[in-house]
Write a structure and sequence with these properties.
The longest helix has 18 residues. The protein has a single domain, classed as 3-Layer(aba) Sandwich (Stationary-phase Survival Protein Sure Homolog, Chain: A). The chain is globular and about 55 Å long. Helix 2 packs parallel to helix 4. The N terminus is likely disordered. The protein is of the alpha/beta class and about 250 residues long. The strands form 2 sheets. A 9-stranded mixed beta sheet has the order 3-4-2-1-5-6-7-11-8.
């Protein structure tokens, strides 16, 4: 799924971000994936992991910033959505990116439920709010299989290049992309357009009694056992293909 290296670069300036933090291996994999897609890559990502916080933004206190020695690499002391806001309205207001890509998240962001919980998706959604074409990329993780970030980078590159070459987002839309996690000897995944799964996640808790402070509840839901309608992004990704969903705001 790796494209020919001689193909023309698709965009002038690309902003990368995530929700797993500036040092996450998924962000490094995304940077490798995008190396031949843009003339200039900017990285503005959370200083610390900020998963599953949805579209939280910081407005009641200052937002810190750490600039790295590497050119155009910044850690925001805030949320994924904060990263995009700071990049678009403070750091690069005079020369905004042509595209924003958020990821590669370690774990799927599938269905409507994940779409609103995910910090990865929130960063892409924030870009779309400001009229910047955006992609959220996640990689479903199966615990029983070894995980390879180089494979994730290759599949992300293939998906991004295909969409940039062949499809155009309308104003107020973003792409939600989920890479499958398959065995090394499995067939090569295909890109398949699909809708977000409407069924909710399985939500289950185990109750633990605590006489002093009342009961506590431990989440026991099983992501791999979530339901789907057979044609949604959950079904496609769980079935071993790359799910691609065009999502309006």
């Amino acid at each position: 799924m790796t494209p020919a290296s001689h193909l023309a670069k698709m965009t002038r300036r690309l902003l990368l971000t995530n929700d797993d933090g500036i040092d996450a291996p998924g962000l490094a994999a995304l940077e490798r994936a995008c190396a031949d897609l843009a003339d200039e890559i900017i990285i503005v990502a959370p200083r610390d992991p900020a998963s599953q916080i949805g579209h939280r933004v910081t407005t009641d206190e200052p937002i810190g910033l750490t600039k790295y020695e590497a050119n155009h690499r910044y850690a925001v002391h805030g949320t994924p959505a904060d990263c995009v806001r700071v990049a678009l309205k403070a750091l690069f207001a005079d020369s905004p990116p042509d595209f924003v890509v958020s990821g590669i998240n370690y774990g799927g962001n599938l269905g409507r439920h994940d779409f609103y919980i995910s910090g990865t998706v929130a960063a892409a959604r924030e870009a779309a709010f400001h009229g910047i074409p955006a992609f959220a990329i996640s990689n479903y993780h199966r615990r029983e299989l070894p995980f390879c970030w180089d494979t994730a980078a290759d599949r992300a590159r293939f998906a991004l290049r295909h969409l940039l070459e062949n499809e155009k987002l309308n104003d107020g839309e973003l792409w939600n992309i989920n890479l499958p996690h398959v065995a090394a000897d499995a067939r090569e995944p295909e890109l398949r357009h699909c809708e977000l799964e409407r069924a909710p996640l399985e939500v289950a808790f185990q109750r633990e009694e605590n006489d002093d402070n009342g009961p506590r509840f431990h989440y026991t839901g099983s992501y791999p056992n979530r339901g789907h309608n057979g044609i949604s992004d959950v079904a496609i990704c769980f079935g071993g293909d790359v799910s691609v969903t065009r999502v309006p705001l």
